[in-house]
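can u do me a favor
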């Protein structure tokens, strides 16, 4: 029995040795492979960044004035009613002016007398009869009479209050027979065919609003109606306290539906630069800030970003990303630089290719990554 066992062991040893020698003679090289991570890609599109401006403005008339008399006196007549439209130089109020009219007549008499004296001197033909200084005094008297007449006429004109421009007059508390002074406000006059609306705008929009731009404004009295306003001018400086500047817009009010003092809601978009728009879920935060995973040649590459704005799940970013390129939207938690990636569609295609290869004997085919 012992010799048989030795022979059996010997055969097993030889067979094992032969097998080991066979493995050494035909080695199978091992190829290092990295397993691709499944991700959901997103193709980058550029979107124009916009700034939303919301403000409240107050309207004022194109021209407005509080009407006061030039002199004190008794009111003889009021020639307007509240709400009337009056023309330029139309008489609004008349003060008693009997003494002023008499002063004008007296100045006219003095002027005619000085004029007749000069005419008599001029008719004297004999040289030397009228001394030169007499002629000078006569001319001075004439000039003085002219000035006195102009003063008297000016004083008489001050007894009549006229509209300085065309517009609509407001209420008045003055009645005929009342005595008023230069501190008594007669009424207010507004030229409201065009209304000016002043409103504040943040400093960061400076340079993006220009005269001639148009926008929509809504009166708080009727939010269902909007009016087109044109930018007229911008303030010359920025307020250091509010970090804003004032913009003035004009509204056509030729139909007289609006009034000075009304408040308006103002809202408009200011277009800015173009930035890549990426899904919010694709943004990753690290110790050095926010970044994305971009797909380059089928592998993940880290790209630093600066967030510009957010809107409904999309984020505008400042980054070195070309329009039309691909980034990783889902699967960012498993990423590291250089790792190969594939989409679920590519995995399904590989599985179908493997099935076809096992049936036909061909090798698998892999579609290109985005």
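np, heres the sequence
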């Amino acid at each position: 029995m012992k010799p048989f066992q030795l022979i059996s062991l010997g055969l097993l040893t030889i067979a094992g040795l032969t097998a080991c020698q066979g493995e050494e003679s035909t080695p199978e090289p091992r190829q290092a492979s990295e397993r691709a991570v499944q991700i959901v890609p997103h193709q980058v599109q550029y979107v124009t960044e916009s700034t939303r401006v919301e403000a409240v403005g107050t309207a004022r008339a194109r021209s407005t004035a509080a009407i006061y008399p030039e002199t004190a006196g008794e009111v003889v007549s009021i020639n307007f009613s509240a709400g009337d439209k009056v023309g330029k130089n139309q008489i609004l109020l008349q003060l008693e002016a009997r003494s002023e009219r008499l002063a004008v007549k007296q100045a006219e008499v003095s002027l005619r007398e000085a004029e007749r004296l000069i005419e008599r001197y001029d008719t004297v033909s004999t040289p030397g009869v009228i001394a030169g200084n007499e002629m000078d005094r006569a001319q001075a008297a004439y000039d003085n009479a002219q000035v006195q007449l102009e003063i008297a006429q000016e004083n008489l004109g001050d007894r009549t209050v006229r509209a300085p421009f065309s517009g609509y007059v407001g209420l008045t508390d003055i009645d005929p027979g009342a005595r008023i002074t230069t501190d008594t406000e007669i009424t207010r006059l507004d030229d409201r065919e065009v209304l000016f609306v002043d409103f504040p705008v943040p400093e960061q929009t400076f340079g993006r609003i220009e005269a001639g731009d148009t926008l929509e404004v809504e009166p708080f009295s009727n939010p269902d109606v909007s009016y087109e306003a044109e930018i007229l001018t911008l303030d010359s400086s920025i307020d250091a306290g509010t970090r804003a500047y004032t913009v003035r817009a004009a509204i056509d009010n030729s139909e007289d539906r609006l009034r000075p003092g009304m408040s308006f809601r103002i809202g408009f978009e200011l277009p800015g630069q173009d930035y890549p728009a990426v899904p919010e879920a694709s943004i990753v935060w690290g110790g050095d800030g926010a970044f994305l995973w971009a797909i380059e040649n089928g592998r993940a590459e880290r790209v630093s970003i600066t967030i510009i704005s957010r809107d409904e799940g999309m984020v505008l970013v400042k980054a070195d990303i070309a329009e039309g390129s691909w980034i990783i939207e889902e699967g960012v938690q498993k990423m590291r630089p250089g790792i190969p990636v594939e989409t679920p569609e590519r995995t399904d295609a590989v599985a179908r290719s493997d099935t076809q290869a096992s049936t036909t004997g061909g090798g698998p085919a892999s579609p290109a990554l985005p």
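The longest strand covers residues 45-67. hope that helps!!
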